[in-house]
Amino acid sequence: MTVPSSRGELLRARRLIAVQALVGVLGGVVVAGLTTVVVVLWAQRQEAGRQVATVVATRSTSGAPPGSWVVVEGPDGRRETSGEVPASVNLARQRAKATGAGSGGGSGEAYAGEREYLTRAVLRDGTLVVAGVDVSAQEDERNRLLAGFLGATVLAGAVAALLGSRLARRAVGSWDEALARQERFVSDASHELRTPLSRLALRARLLGDGLRAGTPREALVDDARLLSDEATVMGDLVDDLLYAASLDARPDVGELVDIGDVARAVVELEQVRAADRGVRLTLRALAVPAVWGVEGALRRAVGALVDNALRHAEHEVAVVVEPEGSQTVRVRVSDDGPGIPAEQAQHLFDRFYRGAHDGRGFGLGLALVRDVVDNHGGSVVVQPLTRGSCFTVDLPAREARD
Question: How far apart are CA 125 and CA 272, in angstroms?
């Protein structure tokens, strides 16, 4: 089966797997049930045949077992009977059947009301012996067996349909997730690349118009710089989109990571930027257990939180790494910026959401933080304050993840 490339193909693949599972289970149940019915019917017939053969072999009307009857008709036409002989038994016809069947005798059926008898007629030395054994109980058992078989088939069909549906969902689950990631990436890219591409095209057109009009090169420096800035912005956005897609595609790859070292690397890298903005960036990293994850992803998540704090802080950003109990590592990033309204806090981790104080951000940074933390089995929350904000990330320690 080829990998589905659209929702329609995915649905058809799911239906095909479900139908195959249903047909397979029902086919197995039907074959097993029919085999059982045939074997039981054959065994019943053989047992009834042995019983009637035993009765016929006695050639006597005495001692016939319950549920059976015997008729003995001598050459002179005198008859002896034992048991209740069905009225449908015609001795002349039985004699003709026995004559044609030879020494083995002839078999048949006879009926009396709702009772069914298996009969056998044997002719020896001119004496006709006809015996019958009641097989009504076997008929009732056969009917119950068939009813049970039909009920089991219906039940198996229902169970097979349910299991087939679950099996189909599980079988195409990875395809479904991959297709969802693809659709989300395309949606994200088309949503956010539209504006930068439009600005980039506009800058390029203005620069081209200036060159064609003979504008002095010195006057075009600013336009060229803006064009370069727009290209850089779009490149950063593409990097974020590709990074978000890679997080979804490889959630289980990882290693032991020291979050304290990750935070130190991020803070050291951002010190120059913080100084340019006149913001004091501090780190307090206590000894914490290692976590299992992707170091690059965790560094990017912590970096996104610090970047967000630096863009909003007025004087100070504080990063704290500390243990939370024995099974959790906590990272807190706080700033003294304008704060976050409560109604905005619930949307901060949505892709492409921009708060009232966001500048040139894409609305992807905090969404990437959430994706990274989710893929590492942790949680991230923001505490909305009237002054400043505090983002808290909790990650399971290695011992807890094991």
Answer: 125
